Amino acid sequence: MRYRITHRTAYRYASPVHESFNEVRLRPCSGETQTCLGFDLTIDPPATVVTFNDYYGNAVHDFGVPYLHDHLTIEATSDVVTFAAADRALAGPRDGADDRSPLLAALAAEPLIADEWAEFLSVSAYVALEEASGSLARAILAEDPATTAYGFLARAGAYIRNHFTYQVGATNVRTTVAEVIAGGSGVCQDYAHLLIALCRHAGLPARYASGYLGNIAQSSAGHAWTEAFVPPYGWIGLDPTLGTLCTGRHVKVAVGRDYADVSPMRGTYRGGGDAQLDV
To answer: If you write DSSP's letter for every residue of 183-226 in order, what string do you get?
Structure first.
């Protein structure tokens, strides 16, 4: 699948801003499941951009506007190809193939996995690993104590899809996993954090993926899902919002422990009062 994606973020300030400093993660990554053929970043007012890769390999564009301005517009245009059809999984058991992943209990007890992927097994900024998520993980695991690693990932993703309500406005960017469980609703970011928590409680390395969902003409937000490390497949993307493995519709931009590592834009400014945001 090939997509041309335009992501536009615009700030308008109540009064002129003296200076602003920003970094964005908007360039889709290239790897085993997709290739970014082209990327263009336009900033108004004009600014010098420094590009680097962060600890997780995500492309970061850093820039500052060191003079008075009453608005800031960032527009990223990407040309991306994903290596699967819109209805075909990018990774994991496909086309009815047998599940070749190890038993979850064996994987969770493997010291090499615990050492290699320690940061994706432990607490992070948005994934606290509290009793609420731990209890839910144990309940899901109790349904099949001899489950495979992939089997648990699929079962946990299906549980979220079937037991939680997608509701815009029910949560905010700082809502915790425990609050999502208590409220029973949320958006893709909340679903991804919840699935990450369930996997980590069970000993399955899991990380947050941000990006876009293809075949959508226009959206006011990006998309998010979970990736779990499942031998022999490697990182498998599962979208708990849709209740499916990630397919050729999923365009990945960045990965990290949780949303804090992959925020599309972060920055600060001096003066200006309140800012109006349009995405």
So the answer is: HTEE-HHHHHHHHHHHHHHTT--EEEEEEEESS-S--SS-EEEE
Q: Kindly report the pTM of this predicted structure.
A: 0.95
Alpha-carbon Rg for the chain, nearest whole angstrom, is 20
Burial class (CB in 10 A: 0-12, 13-18, 19+), 99: middle
Q: What is the residue type of 20?
A: S
- pLDDT at site 216: 75
Mean pLDDT per 10-residue interval, the chain, length 279 residues: 94 89 97 97 96 97 94 96 95 91 97 97 97 98 97 98 95 93 96 98 98 79 94 98 96 98 92 70
For the chain, the 3-state helix, strand and coil shares in percent, each to the nearest 5, are: 25, 40, 35
Query: Can you tell me the distance from the alpha carbon of 191 to that of 259, in angstroms, rounded to the nearest whole number?
Result: 12
Q: What letters, b where the CB count within 10 A reaches 16 and e where it falls short, cover 69-95?
A: beebebebebebebebeeeebbbbbee
- 3-class DSSP state for residue 124? strand
Q: Which two tokens mark 128?
A: 């606290």
Distance CA 199, CA 204 (A): 5
Which residue type, as a one-letter code, is found at position 61? H
Amino acid letter, residue 80: V
**Strands 275-278 and 2-24, how do they pair?**
antiparallel
54 burial class (0-12, 13-18, 19+ CB within 10 angstroms)?
Answer: middle
Cβ within 8 Å of residue 213, ≥6 positions away: 219, 223, 249, 250, 251
**Residues facing residue 39 across a β-bridge:** 78
